């Protein structure tokens, strides 16, 4: 509590957070910008305000893009305050029944993976295919406000299943942590990651025991579920000897590199394990540039790049993807005006606040379209989901690809 109080005191209420907050730019509500949320959290945790549903909703209306934290002249750790506030509200009010049920399933990886497998087999009952688009749309208006949303298609085979036939030897042994989205939805991204790493002489292993990294539970205040999943991931990946652990999802990467160390600060045994895993973990862009990668044949494509918020602001991985893309594309790489502005996806935020998410996504889509690019590359499956939907709504045929997919394509051309 003392640390949080110090963070409260740092805030000068200058309003610099307003200038960069994507949500504030849409709603113009003080309670939905960092400065306002800090005051709400301070008030409710000090007993001045009641933990009402309205207050909880305002604290939930955040992308956690951390543009405010990056732009704060006082160095306020807004993320720490936000998580503290959400933890407090989860204890006081309890989690909503739907979230509680989801996180309960998440804590049981075998059950969760079975559920996703069933979803892949029966998705046609609730989701219809969209001609010429990489995804599906809901049937029968099943979710309010989501009728025309383009959603990704579940893969019939998981990455774990496909990776069994791709085992090779190599100069370095790499364990790949694909995360839920790449293991079950964007499997093609995972295959590209494996192909790229193998092309560069590495042995790549995808452990059979896969689970969520725990971030969805953590950001909503379910610390116990987050810890349960964290222990599962840590134990799974440390049990297998490897030189590095590779991620290709920005949120998963931040969790393995930083999140677990913070989460287990009060558990000495797992804190040490978390530190060990963090030291071994690298985002694929980071690993390739750090180690040096084989130059591919240049692709004749006009490509721009969108910075995933967590990869850019938390892991500071922003130059590396561009270095790779410039090697793959040469002069065909082009920057958009605001590549680091959040796309509005933010994981479950786009489910619980879709109209707001859609409005933010529209601005990103127009920024992408203005570049004249044929492809927008990024390094996060959550951003891919959001960008596909946003571009489809603008009637654009610009493809959304992971950086690893473009590099893998370049290697095919060699």
UniProtKB/TrEMBL annotation:
Binds 2 [4Fe-4S] clusters. It is an enzyme of class 1 (oxidoreductase). One of its GO terms (molecular function) is glycolate dehydrogenase activity. It catalyses: (R)-lactate + A = pyruvate + AH2; glycolate + A = glyoxylate + AH2. Its EC number is 1.1.99.14. PROSITE patterns: 4FE4S_FER_1, 4FE4S_FER_2. InterPro entries: 4Fe4S_Fe-S-bd (IPR017896), 4Fe4S_Fe_S_CS (IPR017900), Cys_rich_dom (IPR004017), Glc_ox_4Fe-4S (IPR012257), Helical_ferredxn (IPR009051). Residues 1-32 form the 4Fe-4S ferredoxin-type domain. Keywords: 4Fe-4S, Electron transport, Iron, Iron-sulfur, Metal-binding, Repeat, Transport. Component of a complex that catalyzes the oxidation of glycolate to glyoxylate. This is Glycolate oxidase iron-sulfur subunit. The lineage of its organism: Bacteria, Bacillati, Bacillota, Clostridia, Thermoanaerobacterales.
């Amino acid at each position: 509590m003392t640390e949080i109080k110090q963070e409260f005191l740092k805030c000068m209420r200058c309003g610099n957070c307003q200038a960069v907050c994507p949500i504030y730019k849409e709603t113009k509500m003080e309670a939905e910008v960092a400065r306002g949320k800090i005051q709400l959290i301070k008030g409710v945790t000090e007993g001045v305000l009641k933990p009402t549903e309205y207050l909880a909703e305002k604290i939930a209306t955040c992308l956690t893009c951390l543009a405010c934290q990056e732009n704060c002249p006082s160095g306020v750790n807004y993320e720490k305050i936000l998580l503290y506030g959400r933890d407090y509200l989860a204890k006081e009010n309890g989690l909503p029944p739907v979230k509680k049920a989801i996180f309960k399933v998440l804590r049981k990886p075998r059950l969760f993976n079975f559920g996703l497998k069933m979803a892949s087999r029966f998705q046609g009952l609730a989701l219809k295919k969209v001609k010429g688009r990489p995804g599906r749309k809901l049937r029968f208006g099943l979710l309010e406000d989501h009728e025309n949303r383009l959603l990704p298609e579940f893969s019939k085979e998981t990455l774990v299943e496909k990776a069994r036939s791709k085992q090779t030897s190599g100069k370095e042994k790499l364990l790949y942590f694909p995360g839920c989205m790449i293991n079950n939805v964007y499997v093609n991204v995972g295959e590209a990651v494996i192909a790229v790493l193998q092309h560069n002489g590495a042995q790549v292993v995808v452990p059979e025991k896969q689970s969520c990294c725990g971030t969805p539970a953590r950001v909503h205040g379910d610390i116990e579920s987050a810890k349960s999943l964290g222990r599962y991931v840590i134990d799974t990946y440390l049990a297998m000897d490897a030189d590095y652990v590779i991620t290709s999802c920005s949120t998963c990467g931040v969790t393995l590199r930083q999140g677990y160390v913070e989460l287990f600060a009060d558990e000495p045994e797992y804190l040490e394990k978390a530190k060990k895993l963090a030291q071994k973990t690298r985002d694929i862009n980071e690993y390739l540039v750090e180690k040096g990668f084989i130059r591919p044949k240049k692709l004749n494509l006009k490509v721009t790049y969108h910075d995933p918020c967590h990869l850019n602001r938390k892991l500071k991985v922003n130059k590396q993807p561009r270095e790779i893309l410039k090697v793959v594309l040469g002069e065909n790489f082009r920057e958009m005006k605001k590549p680091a502005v959040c796309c509005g996806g933010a994981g479950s935020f786009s489910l619980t606040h879709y109209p707001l998410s859609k409005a933010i996504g529209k601005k990103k889509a127009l920024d992408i379209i203005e570049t004249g690019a044929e492809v927008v590359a990024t390094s996060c499956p959550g951003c891919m989901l959001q960008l596909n939907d946003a571009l489809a709504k603008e009637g654009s045929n610009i493809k959304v690809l992971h950086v690893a997919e473009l590099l893998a394509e370049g290697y095919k051309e060699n």
